[in-house]
Write a structure and sequence with these properties.
It is built from 20 helices and eight strands. The protein is mainly alpha-helical. The protein is globular and about 65 Å long.
C-alpha cells in the first residue's frame, strides 16, 4: 500500500469515535466487552481494536486533562486565583492522598491503554495466520508497531508519575517500579517490578515499535504513532534514565531527519507559526498528537486557565501564570505572544493578569461553540532539541549543546538570541528553557524531581492564600504520586505503596 493511501486510510479510521472501556485499573474484562474468545477474529477487528486505543488517549484523565495539567499545577508554574472553582485544588496545595481523584484517574486510564494493547498483542499472531492478503499483513505489522508504541508511552507515564527518579544504584530495588502487565488473558499477580525492569520493558516495546513501523510512513502533524514517534519517546526515556549518549542519538533522528519531515514552528519563516501550532493544532513540529474531531474530542484543556464560557463576557481563571515564568520569556520571545494575553478577570477583585491563551482552544472548535478544546501534542520536535541540549551538557559538550539550544531559540525569537552554555550555567539555563518551552505540558514536576530541585511560591496579587506561599524541598515525598489506595487493597494484590508515602501515613 502506498504511503499516500496508507495515510488517507489511517486518517479516515481515526475520524471514527470508537471506545473500548475498561472500568478499573487492572481489571481485565469489562462487563460489556466482547467475550475474549470471540474478539479480534478478523483484520477489521484488529483495526477497530487499534482505533479503540487511540480513542482512550482522548480521556480527560490523560493528555487533555489530569496527566498534562496535574504535574504542572502541582509545581511552581501557576497560582490559584482567589475565588477559583477548586479544580485541581488538592493537587495545587499538595494535599495529595492515595484516594485523590486525579491520582486515581490517571493511573486507571493508563492501565486501560495497557489493557487494550495487551488484548491486541495476545491475539495478533493467531490472526496473522489466517490472513493471506500481503497488504493486510503489512498493515498488521504497522498496527502492531503502533500498539507497542502506545503501551511504551503508557508505561513511561506511569513511571514518570508514580516512581522515584531513576538512580542506577537503587533502580534494582524491589517494588520501585510499576506493575507490569504483558498479557490481557494470563492470570498475573499484581506486584510491582523494579524500576530497572520497568524501564527495560518500555525499551523492549520501543524496540519492537521501531522494528515494525516503516520510517517511510513517518509524517509530521499526524495523530498516529510512527517510527519517528517511537524514537522521540526513546530519546525522552533515555534522558530520564541518564543514558546521555542514547538520548543524543535518538533525538538526532528527529532533529536531523533524513527526509526533513519535521521542522520547528519558526516565527521568522511564518509570523503565525506558533499561533497555528497552538490555535489550529497544526505544525510540522508535531511528531504525534491526540487527534480530535468535531464529534469526538477530549476534555477542555484550557478551561481552568480561562473559564470564558461561564458568561461569554469575562474570564474566570482558576489558575494564572506565575510572575517568575512570565518574566523569563521577555518581550521579544514569540512564545510570550502565543502563550499569554493580559486580560481583566470577571472576579470581584478584578485581577488583571497575563492569562494562559496557549490552550484557549482550536479555532475550528470555537466556531462550533466548543470552547477551550485543544489537541494535545505529547511528542513534538522542540522537546527533542531540549533533550539533546541537556544530554550534551551532561556529556560535557557545551559547544554543541549551545548550538542545539540556539537552534530552538532562533525559531522563537524574531531578533537573534544567542545562549552560551557552560559547566557553571547550563543547569539553570536548561531548566528555564524547559519551563518556558514546555509550559503547562506536564513536564515540570518530573523535571524538578529528576534534577533534585525544590521550589518556593511567593504570594502574588489576588492569589488564594492557601498554597500561595508553599515551600517544597527536593526530598518531599509527594514529588512522587502515591499508588491509588484501591490498587493496594484489591483482593489478592501484592502492590506495595511507595516507601515515602507509607512513612508519612504512619
Amino acid at each position: 500500500m502506498t504511503r499516500k493511501i496508507y495515510n488517507t486510510f489511517r486518517a479516515a479510521m481515526l475520524a471514527l469515535a470508537v471506545t473500548f472501556a475498561v472500568p478499573s485499573c487492572l481489571e481485565k474484562v469489562p462487563q460489556d466487552a466482547i467475550h475474549i474468545n470471540e474478539a479480534m477474529k478478523t483484520f477489521n477487528d484488529a483495526e477497530q481494536t487499534v482505533i479503540g486505543i487511540y480513542s482512550t488517549f482522548k480521556s480527560g484523565a490523560l493528555y487533555s486533562g489530569s496527566l498534562t495539567l496535574g504535574p504542572d499545577i502541582q509545581s511552581d508554574l501557576v497560582y490559584a486565583v482567589e475565588g477559583n472553582s477548586n479544580q485541581f485544588g488538592n493537587i495545587w496545595q499538595w494535599d495529595i492522598l492515595p484516594t485523590t481523584p486525579e491520582i486515581e484517574s490517571v493511573y486507571a486510564a493508563l492501565y486501560t491503554v495497557i489493557g487494550q494493547c495487551n488484548f491486541y498483542l495476545d491475539r495478533v499472531e493467531a490472526l496473522r495466520e489466517t490472513i493471506t492478503n500481503d497488504e493486510e499483513l503489512k498493515l498488521l505489522d504497522t498496527y502492531t508497531g503502533e500498539v507497542y508504541c502506545a503501551r511504551a508511552l503508557a508505561y513511561s507515564e506511569l513511571i514518570k508519575c508514580y516512581c522515584d527518579a531513576y538512580d542506577a544504584e537503587t533502580a534494582k530495588n524491589p517494588d520501585t517500579g510499576v506493575v507490569l502487565r504483558s498479557s490481557y488473558d494470563a492470570v498475573e499477580v499484581a506486584r510491582r517490578s523494579t524500576l530497572q525492569q520497568s524501564y527495560e520493558f518500555v525499551l523492549a516495546d520501543l524496540a519492537e515499535a521501531e522494528r515494525l513501523m516503516d520510517p517511510k510512513d513517518d509524517r509530521a502533524d499526524f495523530p498516529v504513532f510512527s517510527n519517528a514517534a517511537a524514537h522521540a519517546l526513546h530519546a525522552r526515556v533515555a534522558l530520564f534514565m541518564k543514558d546521555w549518549e542514547t538520548a543524543v542519538a535518538e533525538s538526532e533522528k528527529l532533529i536531523g531527519h533524513e527526509d526533513h519531515l519535521f521542522a520547528l514552528a519558526d516565527i521568522n519563516r511564518n509570523p503565525d507559526a506558533l499561533m497555528r501550532l497552538w490555535h489550529l493544532d497544526s505544525s510540522q513540529e508535531i511528531i504525534w498528537k491526540v487527534g480530535f474531531t468535531l464529534t469526538s474530542y477530549g476534555a477542555p484543556l484550557g478551561q481552568v486557565f480561562l473559564n470564558h464560557n461561564v458568561d461569554m463576557v469575562n474570564y474566570y481563571p482558576d489558575y494564572v501564570p506565575a510572575q517568575w515564568i512570565i518574566s523569563e520569556f521577555g518581550p521579544d520571545d514569540g512564545r510570550s505572544i502565543a502563550y499569554f494575553q493580559e486580560e481583566q478577570t470577571g472576579y470581584p477583585h478584578h485581577l488583571t493578569w497575563p492569562l494562559l491563551m496557549k490552550y484557549n482552544g482550536n479555532v475550528n472548535f470555537i466556531n462550533q461553540k466548543i470552547f477551550h478544546v485543544s489537541m494535545p501534542k505529547p511528542l513534538r520536535l522542540a522537546e527533542q532539541y531540549l533533550i539533546q541540549a541537556e544530554a550534551l551538557c551532561e556529556l560535557g559538550n557545551f559547544t554543541k549543546a549551545s548550538d542545539v539550544l540556539n537552534g530552538l531559540l532562533a525559531s522563537r525569537f524574531a531578533t537573534p538570541v544567542k545562549v552560551g552554555l557552560t559547566a557553571d550555567n547550563w543547569k539553570e539555563v536548561i531548566s528555564e528553557e524547559r519551563a518556558k518551552e514546555l509550559y503547562m505540558e506536564g513536564f515540570r514536576l518530573n523535571d524538578l524531581k529528576r534534577w533534585g530541585k525544590g521550589f518556593k511560591r511567593i504570594y502574588q496579587t489576588s492569589s488564594q492564600k492557601e498554597g500561595s506561599s508553599l515551600v517544597k524541598k527536593a526530598d518531599d515525598y509527594l514529588f512522587v504520586w502515591p499508588i491509588p489506595k484501591h490498587e493496594i487493597e484489591a483482593p489478592g494484590s501484592q502492590v506495595k505503596q511507595n516507601p515515602s508515602v507509607r512513612k508519612q501515613m504512619k
